Amino acid sequence: MSTQSADERILASELVGEIRAVAARIGRPVKLMEVCGTHTVELRRQGIASLLPESVRLVSGPGCPVCVTPAGYLDNAIAVAEAGLALVASFGDMLKVPGSTGATLGSLTGRGLVKMIYSPAELIGLAGAAEKPVMFLGIGFETTIPTVISALLAARDRGIDNLLLYTAFKTIVPALLFLLGRTGTGVDAFLLPGHVSAVIGSEAYAFLREPGGIPGVITGFEPLDMLLGILLALRQLSAGTHEVQNAYPRVVKPGGNAKALRLMAESLEPRSEPWRGLGRIDGGSLGLRPDLSRFDAGVRFALPTAVDTEAPGCLCARVVAGEADPPQCGLFASRCTPDDPVGPCMVSAEGTCAAWFRYGPGRL
Amino acid sequence: MRSLVPLRAGAAVSNPRLIRLEHGSGGALSRELVETVIYPAFRSEAYCELSDAGPISPGAELLVTTDGYVVDPPFFPGGDIGRLAVFGTCNDLAVSGAEPVCLSLALIIEEGFPLDDLRRVVQSAAEAAREAATRVVTGDTKVVPRGTGGGVYITTTGIGRRLFPYPVSPTRITEGDAVIVSAPIGAHGLAVLAARESLPVGAGLRSDTCLLFPLASGLFALGDSLRFMRDATRGGVAAVLNEIAGNGGSSGQAWGIEVEEESFPVSAEVRTVSDLLGLNPLEVANEGVLVAIVADCARQEALDILHALPAGREAQAVGRVSARHPRTVMMRTRIGGSSVLDYPRGLLLPRIC
Amino acid sequence: MCLAVPMRISRLLESGRAVVAQGAVEIEVDVSLLSDPRPGDHVIIHAGYAIETLALEEAEQRLALFRRMAELGQGN
């Protein structure tokens, strides 16, 4: 083992020791919620969940953008691709997700109807060279949204007018407010998403300081970052405070990325659309402003509003709100598995149920 | 635009009666397909264990193996489908304890595939056979209409002569045995993915396609201490370890495997590219990596043998067979925590989320 | 949703793009979301875009911070 990793392991064990001490002082079980699919996976994959004391429970909120996008959105995208109305372009994440009939976009890539891209920057060249319109599936939170908008506006500025955006953008703060307003989650503190926060800034979470708020710690993604985030959240709970702490200051500033925020404000407006599993969240979505509606695929193709009805027995609505653990769902690991997902929490590798299935509860 | 199918509450999200792309990606679903549909048709008393290579008759010295190659694109950095087909089949023989005797090569070519490309593929296959000290002695050629084949598909069958006197079988594995990975992981799958999707990331990666016979035959010297070998292809090292944990042991004994995350050999380049693409090198396909299970007392000797060979210079011991948590691969993470190393699930696709 | 990788700007290109590197890996990314990108800057790359700059002094102090946090176990 290199000295760097030996150091890391020593520091990790010191942080874990401190976490255990503070948890013992708190003296009651506490529930920490993260709202980022990458945190969901990394907390387990890095073995952090296995090192925490029993009294500290990690739950996952609606931080997986694929999981909170209604299946109807995917049905619309598949229909557009199969009808040849546009070349559908998408991040890899969406290609494996089944629509309501079980079909996936991935199975259409071989026929040239769907193109996977790694970066929105590729859309400019793709649309420029295509005869048909190119419809990009705009999913993601604030980490991703500015990159998509940047590409759309760059295409527009080059006179490329056949790049369309089918938006499914989500914003994190309305979701947090929604969760705070929902009794029964029993969440004691938030581990806030480090890279979304890099864009929106730590001050975006100021509402947590208000009466009724809970502690929030902006957390990075390296194992030591995540341990530090958990420790700071526990210390706040022990002290009875509810502040917003930035445990990822090397990337997150109070005002975030002003340029990215301006870009978003100029092109997008808040909408109140349903999040799969949670229902309508006020201002929780972003759509293109009217002056950009000619790039809006939903408008151009008159796509029906995507609505979901969840399968009977599916507990995702409660799981995604942090109110239930996946094993409490009767379908979990029997009818509903990562290879044959029923509900949104299982469809993406980052969903709570998928992470739980693959990595276990983390505790041994 | 056709009318959209209305959402039906309670409908099965996917039709379990149809084959999906995921059935071919080497992960859990592939395993399930083979175990529940394929093996039951062909198992018998004489052939209860259907492994990578089987004896032509019970107890025979000659083994036979077969493989289909559908890699897209057919030419990728570090190799091509012809070379891959020959080496891959020879590697299956090698990890089954055999040297190649001869090969057959069947081509299914899509209408419209350039003749020059076909020449390159077959010449590459011939060259690869020479390198493997064997030859293609028979074959077949078919052409399918445009749109129904992936450029060119190849099926190779290999006959091998058993050199290793012990059965290379998970039933010989026992508690405490060491798990060894022969070379850095993750290069092939990423190189092919980057080439196929023209990704702006990963253009510098090369497939690790190579012959494993020198490594395997080097390990034959361990005798009874060499329990089992497998080449880690699609599904990566994670799939191989899970298959071993699922199958290991005689008389129904199931073992667990414990591995140390830090010990897997991974090049810095593969690490960076897989971070950028959101992929796990442990789940990425290889074409030049051998996983060996050896008795613990032979662990250092095995590593010495591998380190002396060009393709094994970076071999590492990554863990051991355990009596705890049967049928599960447990990984000790770099910060000293524990995490299950699951079968890969679904298609290997980059993600940004 | 937050997959992002730290890399270093090797050189700036035209039209808001740059070459970033980590070890032997070099890729081209878009840096137009940054206010003042410069060669040598460490940045966070997400989906082919640099979304923020990494404050290196912060990163260097990070380990020292961890040690202090672990030591200051008392209180709270």
Can you walk me through this structure?
The complex is a heterotrimer of chains A (364), B (353) and C (76). Chain A is α/β, with parallel strands linked by helices. In chain A, 37% of the residues lie in helices and 15% in strands. Chain A has a domain at 71-170 and 255-300: Rossmann fold (3-Layer(aba) Sandwich). Chain A contains 14 helices and 13 strands. A 6-stranded mixed beta sheet of chain A has the order 4-3-5-6-13-10, sandwiched between helices. In chain A, strands 2-1-7-8-9 form a 5-stranded parallel beta sheet. In chain A, helix 1 (3-26) packs parallel to helix 9, helix 5 (122-129) packs across helix 6 (145-157) and helix 6 crosses helix 10 (258-267). The radius of gyration of chain A is 21 Å and the shape is globular. Chain A starts with a helix and ends in a 5-residue tail after the last helix. With 353 residues, chain B is α+β, with helices and mostly antiparallel strands. Chain B folds into 2 domains: 51-162, PurM-like, N-terminal domain (60s Ribosomal Protein L30, Chain: A, 2-Layer Sandwich); 170-340, Phosphoribosyl-aminoimidazole Synthetase, Chain A, domain 2. Chain B contains 8 helices and 14 strands. A 7-stranded mixed beta sheet of chain B has the order 9-11-8-12-10-13-14. Chain B has a 5-stranded mixed beta sheet with strand order 1-2-7-5-6, with helices on one face. In chain B, strand 13 and strand 14 (338-340) form a beta hairpin. In chain B, helix 2 runs parallel beside helix 3 (115-131). Chain C has one helix spanning 56-71, and strands spanning 5-12, 17-22, 25-30, 42-46, 49-54. Chain C is of the alpha+beta class and 76 residues long. The N and C termini of chain C lie far apart (33 Å). In chain C, a hairpin with a 2-residue loop joins strand 4 (42-46) and strand 5. The longest helix of chain C has 16 residues, at 56-71. The relative contact order of chain C is 0.20.
